[in-house]
């Protein structure tokens, strides 16, 4: 099972914010959209960073309320891990767990085509396990 199956179900919408936007604007965007992270895209629509709720909390802990007036570019994670649509769900789950991050942009030829979260991957994996369990029960009942 691949990332493309998750995107087919959840869609390819990606929430992004400008690098010059304030951390307060990023926090409001995340809250309004009820999401945990937003991409920061450059002028060429390529990923230059990602800002997550965790990044915002760490900035507030380190710099206090003044952090909210700083540009997102000061706080964002710059070294963004990505995946492609052909990557297995198991592999991205392992990468997110090992790297301790929860959001993974999906990229094709340098362009963002979607984003998956650990929640998306777990949900899909649970559905897959339920289908396998049902198939096994059906097989046993007909044997």
**Architecture, according to CATH?**
Roll
Distance between the termini: 27 Å
From the spread of the alpha carbons, the general shape counts as elongated
Uncertain stretches:
none
Taking Cα atoms only, what radius of gyration do you get, to the nearest Å? 18 Å
Number of domains: 1
Number of strands: 5
What is the residue-averaged pLDDT? 93
Structural class assignment: alpha+beta
Broad CATH class: Alpha Beta
Q: Strand count, sense and closure of the main sheet? A: 3 strands, mixed
What's the CATH topology label?
A: CBS-domain
Strand order of the largest sheet: 1-2-3
- DSSP helix fraction: 40-55%
What's the quick description here?
The protein has helices at 3-10, 23-33, 53-63, 72-75, 89-99, 118-142; strands at residues 16-17, 37-41, 47-52, 103-108, 111-117.
Q: What's the helix and strand layout?
A:
Blueprint: H1 3-10, E1 16-17, H2 23-33, E2 37-41, E3 47-52, H3 53-63, H4 72-75, H5 89-99, E4 103-108, E5 111-117, H6 118-142
Parallel strand pairs: 1-2
Antiparallel strand pairs: 2-3, 4-5
Helix pairs in contact: 5-6
What does this molecule look like?
The chain has 143 residues and is an alpha+beta fold. It has a single domain, classed as Roll (CBS-domain), CATH 3.10.580.10. The protein contains six helices and five strands, in the order H-E-H-E-E-H-H-H-E-E-H. It has helices spanning 3-10, 23-33, 53-63, 72-75, 89-99, 118-142; strands at 16-17, 37-41, 47-52, 103-108, 111-117. A three-stranded mixed beta sheet has the order 1-2-3. Strand 1, helix 2 and strand 2 form a beta-alpha-beta unit. Helix 5 (89-99) packs across helix 6. The longest helix is centred in the last third of the chain and has 25 residues, at 118-142. The protein is elongated, with a radius of gyration of 18 Å.
């Amino acid at each position: 099972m691949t990332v493309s199956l998750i995107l087919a179900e959840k869609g390819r919408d990606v929430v992004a914010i400008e690098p010059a936007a304030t951390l307060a604007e990023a926090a409001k965007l995340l809250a309004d959209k009820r999401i945990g992270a937003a991409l920061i895209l450059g002028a060429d629509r390529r990923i230059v960073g990602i800002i997550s709720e965790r990044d915002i909390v760490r900035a507030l802990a380190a710099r206090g309320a003044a952090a909210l007036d700083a540009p997102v570019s000061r706080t964002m994670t710059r070294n963004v891990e990505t995946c492609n649509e052909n990557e297995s769900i198991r592999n991205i789950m392992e990468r997110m767990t090992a790297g301790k991050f929860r959001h993974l942009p999906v990229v094709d030829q340098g362009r963002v085509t979607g984003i998956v979260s650990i929640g998306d991957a777990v949900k899909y994996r649970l559905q897959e396990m339920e289908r396998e369990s049902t198939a096994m029960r059906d097989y046993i009942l007909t044997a």
